[in-house]
Amino acid sequence: MNPKTPSKLEQILASGQLAVTSECGPPRGSNGDAIKKKAEIIKNHVDAINITDNQTSVTRLCSLAAVIRLKLMGLEPILQMVTRDRNRIALQSDILGAASFDIHNILCLSGDHQQFGDNPKAQNVFDIDSMQLIQMVRLMRDEKKFLGGDDLERAPEMFVGAACNPFADPFEIRARRLAKKVAAGVEFIQTQCIYNLDKFELWMKQVRDMGIHEKVYILAGVTPLKSAGMAKYMKNRVPGMDVPDEVVKRMSGVSKDDQPEEGIKICVESIQRLKEIEGIRGFHIMAIEWEERVPEIVEKAGLFPRPAVASEPFSL
Amino acid sequence: MIVAERKPLEEIIGFIKDYKKILLVGCNECVTVCYAGGKKEVAILASALKMAFLKEEKELEVKEVTLERQCDQEYLEEIRSIVDQYEAIVSMACGVGVQFMAEKYQTMPVYPALNTLFMGGAEEMGVWAERCQGCGQCVLGQTAGICPITRCAKRLLNGPCGGSTKGHCEINKDVPCAWQLIIDRLKALGKLDDYDNLMPIKDWSAERSGGPRKIVREDLRQ
Ligand code: SF4
After folding, report:
1. Does some domain include residue A206?
2. Contacts of A169 in chain B (CB under 8 A)
3. Which residue in B149, B158, B207 has the most chain A C-beta atoms within 10 A of its own C-beta, making it the best mutation to test that interface?
4. Measuring CA to CA, which residue among B154, B54, B100 is closest to residue A127?
5. For residue A111, is it within any domain?
6. Is A126 left (phi over 0), alpha (psi -120 to 50) or beta?
């Protein structure tokens, strides 16, 4: 696939090399340096950095401001956007805002329900869903049009991504649902954290049988476990998360002090196994508030050094 | 039907604490069927209010009436001759009935005794659930007769989201995942291929977003 945008992530994927992305959650306050600090830790070990958009519906500094900070550091941000909080007017407006700073990657999500966050009494918007957001960004980029039909000046040049959870139910339509996102125009996918590799392989087989892996770059999502407690929490409390008993057992089987190391080990082993799966084009490492361990995961997984593709320079 | 439930007694007392004579009006339609504001509930609320007043050593005269429908001009007329004898009306109808009442009797204070919740039906005795949000452009023809706008907590037209687990919604294990239901039914109908169609961005102008809605049927107008 030839790159259609100046996105560094897209260049790397199009060149056939495995891509590595990671993510940073913005702070719960206006300290912009917090985001910089997190990015500094991982910047040499990843190709692009997602900035989450009020993840789990907890109010934080906005993803748009945070990606601009990364851009000004010369890094390659991926703007996460959920449709929970903004209608089509605000979404288009924020996309243009991001494009004005040459943000070249966007991840289109619907977002967690607000009841999980700090404002469960809020209205939700959901004017459009994640698939329709994908369509909207493609319309703005490829047709240079607003959703309302008017022409827009200086179209956003964004590589369009989305998430995908192979572990949610009903399993039988999960590959078809990805096909729908591809039909909507998605170009790369970051999956939900993978702990159940057998099930993931099954899903990838369905994806390959449908030929979808030829049409979209799939980055396998991994999250290192910090503790047995975290494994149990993910297993029992996070909707759509599939943590097999063996993983919980393995984490519980070592002393509390050794659990972080065990978590990293499991993560690295997962990446090694995922590398063997046809159709996996890279990795998305979500180290939740544990950015400092990302470089070592990347190195141990044999994904370092990263390809020398520079981000498009940008200055104010 | 429209499903409602009674407000807490204290809230209703708060509305009427300064009155001595009130007209308590029930409705014989939906709110009777969902046991919220019919004749029986009017009687129960009347005695509860009177008792609460007595406890405070106050007196309250409550006239109990239940109309056929409060969302209908014609039935609202039935109380015209007695309205003046009371200081306030407490309506046990849905929000529509309360407002029609207030519009009809301009100089009378009208208070709601119910919280109006949704359009739905009884899934079993004592259990009511929402089915329609009146979006003005029904998509049930494309979704196997199950409404994603109402029954998906994120009203996703191209669901299910990544939180669907063992048939239930990410917000609560007691809420069925609308998209699981849709897929199950599409399968039962032999129409699972319909799932592959992308649902277009919805026109919400026919919904609440477009402002208060109205239908004018010239053929029926007098
Ligand atoms: S699609 Fe609209 S009209 Fe049809 S059931 Fe759902 S909310 Fe009601």
Report:
1. yes
2. 160, 164-167, 177, 180
3. B158
4. B154
5. yes
6. left
Tell me the pLDDT tens digit for each residue of B147-194. Answer: 999 999 999 999 999 999 999 999 999 999 999 999 999 999 999 999
pLDDT digits (tens, 9 = 90+) for A197-239: 999 999 999 999 999 999 999 999 999 999 999 999 999 999 8
pLDDT (tens digit, 9 = 90+) per residue, B80-92? 999 999 999 999 9
Domain-embedded: residue A314: no
Which residues of chain B are at the A interface, by a Cβ-Cβ cutoff of 8 Å?
153-167, 170-171, 177, 180, 183-184, 192, 195-196, 198, 200-202, 204
Determine which helix (DSSP H) or strand (DSSP E) holds B120, and give its type and residue range: strand B114-124
Give me the interface pTM, i.e. the ipTM: 0.94
DSSP B42-71: HHHHHHHHHHHHHHTT---EEEEEEES-SS
Q: Which atom of ligand 1 is nearest to the CA of B119?
A: 8
- What CATH number does residue A141 fall under? 3.20.20.220
Give the confidence band of A313 by pLDDT, cuts at 50, 70, 90.
confident
Query: A166-176: per-residue pLDDT in tens?
Result: 999 999 999 99
Could you tell me the residue range of the domain that residue A247 belongs to?
A: 8-300
Q: Quick check: is A313 in a domain?
A: no
Which residue, among A184, A67, A120, has the nearest Cα to B199 in the 3D structure? Answer: A184
Q: Helices H, strands E: what count in chain B?
A: 8, 9
Q: Which residues line ligand 1 (CB under 6 A)?
A: B 132-135, 138-140, 147, 149-150
d(CA A205, CA B158): 23
Q: Is the minimum CB–CB distance between A191 and chain B shorter than 8 Å?
A: no
> A170 vs B164: CB contact, 8 Å cut-off?
yes
Residues B82 and B62: their CA atoms lie apart, in Å, by 12
**Rounded CA separation A146/A218 (Å):** 28
Q: What is the pTM of this model?
A: 0.95
Q: Cα(A199) to centroid of ligand 1, in Å?
A: 36
> Strand, helix or coil at A134?
helix
Q: How far is the CA of B144 from the centre of ligand 1 (A)?
A: 12
In degrees, rounded to 5, the angle at the alpha carbon of residue B146 between the alpha carbons of residues B141 and B152 is: 125
Q: Is residue A129 within 8 angstroms of chain B, CB to CB?
A: yes
Q: What is the CATH number of domain B2-118?
A: 3.40.50
Residue whose tokens read 């849905």: B94
For residue A121, give both structure tokens: 């009494």
CATH 3.40.50 placement within chain B? 2-118
Residues contacting B48, CB < 8 A, separation 6+: B9
**HSE-up (13 A, CA, CB side) for residue B94:** 20
